[in-house]
Please model this.
Amino acid sequence: MVSLDQIQSYMRQQMADDGERKSVNVSGDSLEDVLQQAAIELSIPVKKIEYEILVRGSRGMLGMGKKAFEIVAYPMRAREVAADEAGEVQIDLSLLDGDDEERDRNGDVFVRLDPEGVMLKVTRPKGSGVRATERQAMEKLLQRVDGDLDKTRVAKVVKGADGEFIKVGNYDYDPSADASLTVDITESEMKAYLLAYPPGEGGADPTHGQIVAFLQANEVVTGLDEAAIRRLEEDPIYRESFLVASGVPPTDGADARVEHTFVINPGHIKLKETNGRVDFKELNLVQNVVEGQILARKIAAERGEPGQTVTGKLLSAEDGKDVDMPVGKNVRVSDDGMTALSELNGQVVVTGGKILVEPVHVISGDVNLKTGNILFLGTVVVKGNVDDGFTVKAAGNIEVMGSVGKSMLDAEGDIIVHQGVAGKTAGIIRCGKSVWAKFIENARVEAGHLVVVSDGIISSTILSDGKIICKGKRASIVGGQIRAVEEINAKSLGSVSGSETVLEVGYDPKRKEKLSKIEGRRETLREDLDDVKLNMSTIENFVKAGRKIPDDRKTYYQELKARRVDLKSELEKLKEEANEIREYLSDLKVAGRISASGTVFPGVKISIKDAFLEVRNEFKAVTFIADNNTVKVTKYEESDEDVTIGRRG
Model:
């Protein structure tokens, strides 16, 4: 039995020790920061510091409500240092995580009756909580046992508050009076609830091992709640049922699914901004794909995860269901069945839930602000008109049922305009094959093969690598510059008013035009080179005269030298390119001819290879050919070209 004198002596020693210990008050943004600061001020390692939190800090939200940590710190007692060096951690490291959401918690007292004796555990406070007292410990002990208690040890346990059960007394242990347990298994064996009854006189509280053994003996073998069992062991709760085990429900596997690599509903318009301005013509409503492009991927079905009851029975789960790749025409499935790929260039769409690639994109009305510009890797059919300012580009053909205004049509295949082209001096038609139109007026046309017009060509620039044919009742060519490699044929050429109409055949018009541009560029570069040389010469004359040249002029001179090198290099490349074109044109074997089944009016200028003729007198039903560098007038010859649209391509 501990005497009152012993307790008083122990308390006096504790007070004396506390009075001799140096302490510091420090504050900072985090507990780590203040402990480091305290270690510096006390000149000891952090692990040899004891501390009490005066103010628990907080990081706040978005910089608001921030609060600093504040502690009082002092050196650990010698015996506590020895314990720490032996591996017993003294600092509550859980406080170092800085969790602002952790609530303040007072120190607590736990009592359990064990076959070895009366066990006491005291925990430290957290946050702004207060420490447990010896009075609290004694009150709780006396509620459980009237046996022999070691009050000195009780005081030590309260002071240390290390969260471990320590024996502080004895009682007459009677195993027959131990606490009793019952278990209730419910919800198709998915839940197990434990009910404990308090021990009788001399009986002990249940231990963790006893609880687990009891549950296993009653077939509760899986899904045990270790935390709940530990709580029951540390702080027994009697005559109250609580959950101690939960089964794991089965999880069915997710079904296979298909993920598209394109936007299924392109109606959601994303406008592009260029130089601060939104271009309402670029709506990007057509989703182009190329041959071999992946259009969709299948995510495989997942296997189900079986469940288990608290009694260990397995619960089966369903595997996810597979799905077929939803493909339609012009789309194929890979050998492994996991991807869908386009079989050709075109527009990808989803119809009836299936992925299709359409080689033809049909515009049901006009190309205007509603449709935006059209870019398609296939053939485009426009049921209406192409309004001024809009562009249609296609990797295949372009067919316009209506008319084309001051617009651009660009196709790798053919272009057909049923109601004609009114270009207003800015319309451009460009194709890799042939152009068919009712009429062409004030436009520029470039074709890789034929240009076929039924009602005539007016004041336009037409370039053809093949033939230009105007065939119809009003099939005339009036004004402009018309160039073809092989032939120009129309009902009439020029007009009564004598408007200048330039007709050229027998050479590649695109190469000749490119040669003209190269010569223009060469002339500009030669002028630039002359300017550079003049500026360099001026600076060189200053040097020869012995005059001092500022640093900025020296830098400028070096820039001129570099510019001179660049200009000479570009001029040499252009010279070589021009010579190649001239050699190609001189070797061109096409003879070329220009024909009119009706009238050729004065004012028409005819060039056939190197021969030239300006028509001064009216001709009827004639064909012009070249003979010994002279344009010769012969009897009209019908073109042998079949210009029906069915033969295009």
About this structure: Residues 551-587 form the longest helix (37 residues). The radius of gyration is 49 Å. Residues 4-97 form one domain.
